[in-house]
Amino acid sequence: MPDVTVDSYSTQGASGVEKVAGRWVAPLPDNSSMQKLPLNAAGIAARDSYDPKNSPANNCEPTSIPSALYAPFLTDIQIGENEVVFHHEVYGTVRTIPLNAPPAQVEATGWFGVASARIVDDVLVVDSTDFLPSGWGTTIATHALADHTDIPSSPQKRLIERYSTSEDGLTLNLEYTLSDPGYLTEDYSATIKWNRVADDEPIYDYNCEMGSASRFSGD
Fold first, then answer.
1. Domain encompassing residue 23
2. In a 10 Å sphere around its CB, with 0-12 CB exposed, 13-18 middle and 19+ buried, how is residue 88 labelled?
3. Higher pLDDT residue, 103 or 6?
4. What CATH number does the domain containing 109 carry?
């Protein structure tokens, strides 16, 4: 992707949380630096019994957050007067989140729960709950968070995302806290740094084809 300078994106000259808006890309995950999830007995059992033939990857269920936040695809963030819109290139997910308003379902399928957003100082905070239970709602096998296995999530899952930027607006600092008493002994927190790309960097359609997806686990 082309280099982006402080003068080559539309929010140049913006201040505070306005700099969060724009188009970003996550780097390839550094699995060596990921701390393991604090799994409880149910989480450990899910890890130890993991069978890729049962992974949601086989039926095109979208990767949930926080896992999708690590995917090295583009994310476009737009902050309006009444809502914040996240367009994640991975699985083509669009989350429309009410800003300074009661929580609401953020997209049609329900996989990404109910959420609300607020601005605290120069930080955009997104609080999501009421996720549908998912076979890989806590983490996915391509991450080292749970020894390269899928870990399910329960209806108790909650995710708080906090977005801010570097002074020059070229790096996005994404801090998140994941809670799920169904599979974790305590909250898990981490930080991901995304890099800004040009506003016109194309976001491509993400078409999950069931025939191909069903071969995820091999024979």
1. 16-197
2. buried
3. 103
4. 2.40.128.20
Q: Hey, which bits of 106-170 come out as E strands? A: 114-120, 123-129, 134-139, 151-153, 158-165
Mean pLDDT to the nearest integer, 158-181:
96
User: 147: burial class by Cβ within 10 Å (0-12, 13-18, 19+)?
Assistant: middle
Long-range contacts of 44-47 (CB under 8 A, 24+ apart): 46/149, 46/150, 46/151, 46/152, 46/183, 47/146, 47/147, 47/149, 47/151
Tokens of 147: 């020894």
Task: Tell whether 1 is covered by a domain.
Answer: no
Q: Is the pLDDT assigned to residue 210 strictly greater than 90?
A: no
Cα–Cα distance measured from residue 151 to residue 44, given in angstroms and rounded to the nearest whole number: 9
CA distance 39 to 41: 7
